[in-house]
UniProtKB/TrEMBL annotation, chain A:
Protein name: ABC transporter ATP-binding protein
Major localization listed first in the record, in broad terms: membrane
UniProt domain ABC transporter: residue ranges: 4-235
Record keyword Transport present: yes
InterPro entries named in the record: AAA+_ATPase, ABC_transporter-like_ATP-bd, ABC_transporter-like_CS, ABC_transpr_MalK-like, ABC_transpr_MalK/UgpC-like, Mo/tungstate-bd_C_term_dom, NA-bd_OB-fold, P-loop_NTPase
Keywords from the UniProt entry: ATP-binding, Nucleotide-binding, Transport
A Pfam cross-reference name: ABC_tran
PANTHER family to which the protein is assigned, alphabetical: MALTODEXTRIN IMPORT ATP-BINDING PROTEIN MSMX, MALTOSE_MALTODEXTRIN IMPORT ATP-BINDING PROTEIN MALK
GO molecular function terms listed in the Swiss-Prot or TrEMBL record: ABC-type maltose transporter activity; ATP binding; ATP hydrolysis activity
Gene Ontology CC entries for this record: ATP-binding cassette (ABC) transporter complex, substrate-binding subunit-containing; maltose transport complex
Location in the cell: Cell inner membrane
UniProtKB/TrEMBL annotation, chain B:
TM regions (residue ranges): 29-49, 105-126, 138-158, 189-213, 234-256, 292-316
Protein name listed in UniProt: Sugar ABC transporter permease
Keyword Membrane annotated: yes
Keywords: Cell membrane, Membrane, Transmembrane, Transmembrane helix, Transport
Short name of any one Pfam family annotated for the protein: BPD_transp_1
BP-aspect Gene Ontology terms: transmembrane transport
UniProt source species: Oceaniradius stylonematis
Length: 339, 326
C-alpha cells in the first residue's frame, strides 16, 4: 500500500509554467484518474511522478519518502505508455524479461513472474511473437504485463486506451478495472482526456485545467457537485447546458447550468417554450436540441427512442434540485439552488 | 453438370470495370515512369552496354569506330610460342590488376569500417541535446561539403614530406625524428589515402546514422529508464538493433562509393602500386596506355565485382530493401 503525495509541485519548461502548486494526497491502493483537456499538464504530472521529468519545485513523496532525486528505476513504479513502448526487435517474453534481468533477479524468478503476468492477461500463447505480429489490444496487454512483472508499488498509465478502436477500448477498460481489483494493494494513477474512462475507472478523479488542480473527488461527487464551471462542463456526457442572460440573472448568477438529463420535456406546459431543431436518436436515449425563447439552445435527454419531430413545439422545465449556478469567474454560487 | 460458377451479369460487369480500371492505372504508371526509364537507359544502360561491348573488341582510343570483336582475349588468352612453351595474357592473368582489386577491397573495408565507427560515435553525440549543438552539426559537415579534389589536394600539401604541416607538427611534439613521405612511400601511401577518406566521409556517415537515431521513438528510452537499464546495455540491446537497418543502408552506400574510389587516389598518390585501385587501373589503360578495350574489360569487371559484393552484403545481412515493417 503505497501512498503518493505531492506538495506544492511546480513544473516549468524554460519560461513556460506547465504545473502550478499542485497538492495531492493519494492513498495506498487507490485508483486515481488525472483528467483534463489536452495541454492541461496531466501527462506532465504523471511523468514527474515517474521521474521522467525533473520537478522544478515542491516535493514528491511515495510512502512518506521524498522521491524528487530518486532515479525512475528506484521509485517502485511501473508505467504503461500510450504507444506501448514495446521493443520491436524483442519477443513478448524478452520484452517482459528485459527490465527484470536488470533488477538482478534469478532466471527462475523471472520466468515465474512472467508466467504469472501472462496468465493473468491471457497472453501466454504468444510469448515468442514479436510486437508487430500482435494486434493493438494484444500489444497493450503485453505492455501492461511488462509493467505488472516489476511488481510496482505505484502503477502509472499514460492514456493507455487512446490507440485502440472504440469496441476494444471498452473491453480493455473493463480489464483494467478487473486488474485493479486483483492488485488491490497497488496504487494506480491513470491519465486520460476521456471523461467516460475517468468516471468508470476511478476511485477518485483529479480534474486538471491549465496546470491547476480544479477539483479532486469521487466520480459522483464531481458529477453532482462540480467545484467550478470548468468541471461541470468537463464531467458528464453530453456536456451540461450553460445558459447566460436573464435566466441566470433571475437566480442571482452569471451562468445557469443544467445537465441534459435533468430537463423535463413536455408538449403542453413548462417553463421554457421552444422549437426542436435537431434530434439524435441513439436507441437507448434520444437527444433533442431545443431552441428556446428565454434560454437559447438547450440539449435535452429523453429516455428510449422518443418519437419527437424536428420543428415540433415543446416546453422545457429544469429539475429544480439539479440546477448549478456559477458566478462570472466560474465559481459555484451557493445557497441559490432552488428555482 | 452445372458446376460452372454462377456469374450474374452484374458481377461480370463489375469485374470488367475493375480490370479496365486497373489497366488504366497500369497504363498511366508506365506513362509516368517512361521519361525516367528513357533517361536512365540513355545515361546508364547504354554506356554500360558500350563498355561491355568494347571489352570484347580490339578498340583503341583513336580507332573506336573500327573496333573488331575478338572474344575473351582481353580477359584471358593463352599464347602458344610454338616451342611447347606458352603464356597466359589478359586481365585475369595480370598481377597488377589483381593488386588493384585487392587495394580497392582493402581500402573499402578499412575506410568504411572506420567511417562507420566514427560516424556512430559522432551521431550519438549529436543526438544528445547540448548548447551549441547546431553549430557543432554544421562544423562536422564541413569536410563533406568540400569537393574531394580540393580536400585531396589540401591533404597532399599538408602531408608533403618537406613542407607539410603534418610532419612539422609530429616532429615538434617528438613523435617522429625525420620527415615521413606520407604519400610517396609505399608503406604509408594507403594509410594516408584511407585517413583522408575517413576525414572526408565520416560526416556523411554520421548524418545517415543520426537520421536513424532520430527514428527511434523516445518512449523506448523512457521505458528503459524506468527499468534502470545502464547506458551501454541500452545501446547494445535497444539502440543498436533499432538503428541497424539505417546503419546497413549507410554502409552499403559508403561501400559502393569506396569500391569505385578514384579521385582521392588519383590526386594524392598518382601511379603507385601501393594505392592503385580498380578505377585508377581502368582509367590508366583507357586513356594513358591507349589500351581502350583492355580498360573497358577492367571497367566491366569492376562493375561486376562491385555488384557481387553489394548483393552478397545485402544477402548476408538480410537487409530489408522493401521498406515494410521489420
Amino acid at each position: 500500500m503505497a501512498s503518493v503525495e505531492l506538495k506544492n509541485v511546480c513544473k516549468s519548461f524554460g519560461t513556460v509554467e506547465v504545473l502550478r502548486d499542485v497538492n495531492l494526497a493519494l492513498e495506498g491502493g487507490e485508483f486515481v484518474v488525472f483528467v483534463g483537456p489536452s495541454g492541461c499538464g496531466k501527462s506532465t504530472l504523471l511523468r514527474l511522478i515517474a521521474g521522467l521529468e525533473d520537478i522544478s519545485d515542491g516535493d514528491l513523496m511515495i510512502d512518506g519518502q521524498r522521491m524528487n532525486d530518486v532515479l525512475p528505476a528506484k521509485r517502485g513504479i511501473s508505467m504503461v505508455f500510450q504507444s506501448y513502448a514495446l521493443y520491436p526487435h524483442m519477443t513478448v517474453f524478452e520484452n517482459m524479461a528485459f527490465g527484470l534481468e536488470q533488477a538482478k533477479l534469478s532466471s527462475d524468478e523471472i520466468k515465474a513472474r512472467i508466467a504469472q503476468a501472462a496468465d493473468m492477461l491471457q497472453i501466454s500463447d504468444y510469448m515468442e511473437r514479436k510486437p508487430r505480429q500482435l494486434s493493438g489490444g494484444q500489444r497493450q496487454r503485453v505492455a501492461i504485463g511488462r509493467a505488472i512483472t516489476r511488481q510496482p508499488r505505484v502503477f502509472l498509465f499514460d492514456e493507455p486506451l487512446s490507440n485502440l478502436d472504440a469496441a476494444l477500448r471498452v473491453d480493455t477498460r473493463l480489464e483494467i478495472a478487473a486488474l485493479h481489483k486483483r492488485l488491490a494493494d497497488t496504487t494506480m494513477i491513470y491519465v486520460t482526456h476521456d471523461q467516460v474512462e475517468a468516471m468508470t475507472l476511478a476511485d477518485r478523479i483529479v480534474v486538471l485545467n491549465a496546470g491547476n488542480v480544479e477539483q479532486v473527488g469521487t466520480p459522483l461527487e464531481l458529477y453532482a457537485r462540480p467545484a467550478s464551471q470548468f468541471v461541470a462542463g468537463f464531467i458528464g456526457s453530453p456536456r451540461m447546458n450553460f445558459i447566460v442572460g436573464e435566466v441566470a440573472a433571475g437566480h442571482g448568477a452569471a451562468t445557469f447550468g443544467i445537465r441534459p438529463e435533468h430537463v423535463d420535456l413536455s408538449r403542453d406546459k413548462g417553463l421554457w417554450k421552444g422549437t426542436v431543431r435537431l434530434t439524435e436518436a441513439l436507441g437507448s436515449d434520444t437527444f433533442a436540441h431545443v431552441d428556446t425563447e428565454t434560454a437559447g439552445m438547450v440539449n435535452v435527454r429523453l429516455a428510449g427512442a422518443e418519437p419527437i419531430g424536428e420543428g415540433e413545439m415543446v416546453f422545457l422545465t429544469p429539475q429544480p434540485d439539479a440546477i448549478h449556478l456559477f458566478d462570472a469567474s466560474g465559481r459555484p454560487v451557493h445557497g441559490a439552488r432552488a428555482a | 453438370m452445372s458446376a460452372a460458377p454462377d456469374i450474374s451479369p452484374a458481377t461480370a460487369r463489375a469485374s470488367a470495370r475493375t480490370s479496365r480500371l486497373s489497366r488504366e492505372r497500369i497504363r498511366s504508371a508506365w506513362l509516368f515512369l517512361a521519361p525516367m526509364l528513357i533517361v536512365l537507359a540513355g545515361v546508364a544502360l547504354y554506356p554500360l552496354y558500350r563498355t561491355i561491348w568494347f571489352s570484347f573488341t580490339d578498340a583503341s582510343l583513336d580507332l573506336l569506330g573500327e573496333a573488331r570483336f575478338i572474344g575473351w582475349r582481353n580477359y584471358l588468352e593463352y599464347v602458344d610460342y610454338g616451342n611447347g612453351d606458352g603464356e597466359w595474357f589478359g586481365l585475369l592473368a595480370d598481377s597488377r590488376w589483381w593488386r588493384s582489386v585487392w587495394n580497392t577491397v582493402w581500402f573499402a573495408i578499412v575506410s568504411v569500417s572506420l567511417e562507420t565507427l566514427f560516424g556512430l560515435v559522432i551521431a550519438l553525440v549529436l543526438h544528445k541535446k547540448f548548447p551549441g549543438r547546431v553549430w557543432v552539426q554544421a562544423a562536422v559537415l564541413i569536410p563533406w561539403a568540400i569537393p574531394t579534389i580540393v580536400s585531396a589536394r589540401m591533404w597532399a600539401w599538408m602531408l608533403h614530406d618537406q613542407f607539410g604541416i603534418v610532419n612539422d607538427m609530429l616532429q615538434r611534439i617528438g613523435l617522429i625524428d625525420a620527415p615521413v613521405a606520407w604519400t610517396a612511400s609505399p608503406e604509408t601511401a594507403m594509410i594516408a589515402v584511407i585517413m583522408v577518406d575517413v576525414w572526408k566521409t565520416t560526416p556523411f556517415m554520421a548524418l545517415l546514422i543520426l537520421a536513424g537515431l532520430q527514428m527511434v521513438p523516445r518512449d523506448m528510452y523512457e521505458a528503459a529508464r524506468l527499468d534502470g537499464v545502464p547506458p551501454f546495455r541500452l545501446f547494445r540491446r535497444v539502440t543498436l538493433p533499432l538503428i541497424m537497418p539505417a546503419l546497413l543502408v549507410a554502409i552499403v552506400f559508403r561501400a559502393l562509393d569506396a569500391l569505385r574510389v578514384f579521385d582521392i587516389v588519383y590526386v594524392m598518390t598518382p601511379n603507385t602500386d601501393a594505392t592503385r585501385t580498380m578505377s585508377v587501373y581502368a582509367r590508366e589503360n583507357l586513356f594513358d596506355f591507349d589500351r581502350f578495350a583492355y580498360g573497358s574489360a577492367a571497367s566491366t569487371l569492376l562493375f561486376f565485382i562491385i555488384a557481387l559484393i553489394t548483393i552478397g552484403f545485402i544477402y548476408a545481412t538480410r537487409m530489408n530493401l522493401e521498406g515494410d515493417e521489420r
